[in-house]
């Protein structure tokens, strides 16, 4: 039986391997790929823009399921940071912002055409994106968010889109601090 420290070490090795695979193809992103401290927690995989939060068991299961998907998940989260997605205002619709950010990041990954980051969800993503591109020329999170707010898509469609694009947990983005009056 593997103990907690061994599982955490293996998970960190997997994250190192994922980062290094990305560095081979995206050397210009060396600072972004190496910047974040890692924090072990119980959940899945998340970031607040400063740290990468990871559940070691989640990382092991993801890697066992698909090494490429694990590398993609790492890039997905780093791109959220590069595009400053975690830094949101308190009035944002969390569901729509998260979906818009996931769509923008996944489109970027698909457009990069990198080896070693393929996903079984790419075909579904491309179908959805082809519909969105009828209304938008450039697919930034801000433009997608605006479209999602304007278009009032049904809940079932949004749920399908979330399943196709979601890769990480965005909960740390929406932690609000109480503002006290002076």
In words, what does this structure look like?
With 182 residues, the protein is mainly alpha-helical. The protein contains eight helices and three strands. It has helices at 4-25, 30-34, 56-65, 67-82, 94-112, 122-132, 141-151, 155-165, and strands at residues 37-40, 45-47, 51-54. It has a three-stranded mixed β-sheet. Strand 2 and strand 3 form a beta hairpin. Helix 5 packs across helix 8. The chain starts with a helix and ends in a 17-residue tail after the last helix.
Tally of alpha and pi helices = 8
The assigned structural class equals: mainly alpha
Low-confidence stretches: 177-182
Largest sheet: 3 strands, mixed
Q: For the largest sheet, list the strands in their spatial order.
A: 1-3-2
Mean pLDDT: 90
Approximately what portion of the residues adopt beta-strand conformation? 5-15%
What is the helix content? 55-70%
**What is the terminal separation in angstroms?**
55 Å
| Cα-based radius of gyration, to the nearest Å | 17 Å
Return the string of H and E elements: HHEEEHHHHHH
**General form:** globular
Strands, count:
3
């Amino acid at each position: 039986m593997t103990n907690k420290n061994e599982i955490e070490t293996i998970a960190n090795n997997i994250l190192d391997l994922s980062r290094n695979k990305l560095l081979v193809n995206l050397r210009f992103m060396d600072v972004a790929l190496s910047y974040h401290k890692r924090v072990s927690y119980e959940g899945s995989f998340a970031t607040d823009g400063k740290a990468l939060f990871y559940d070691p068991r989640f990382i092991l299961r993801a890697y066992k399921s698909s090494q490429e998907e694990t590398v993609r998940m790492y890039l997905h989260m780093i791109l959220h940071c590069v595009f400053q997605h975690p830094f949101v205002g308190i009035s944002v619709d969390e569901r729509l912002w998260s979906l818009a950010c996931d769509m923008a990041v996944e489109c970027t990954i698909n457009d990069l055409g990198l080896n070693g980051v393929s996903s079984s969800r790419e075909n579904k993503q491309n179908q959805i994106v082809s519909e969105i591109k009828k209304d938008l020329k450039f697919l930034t999170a801000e433009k997608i968010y605006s479209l999602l707010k304007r278009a009032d898509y049904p809940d079932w469609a949004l749920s399908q889109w979330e399943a196709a694009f979601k890769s990480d947990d965005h909960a740390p983005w929406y932690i609000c601090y109480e503002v006290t009056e002076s």
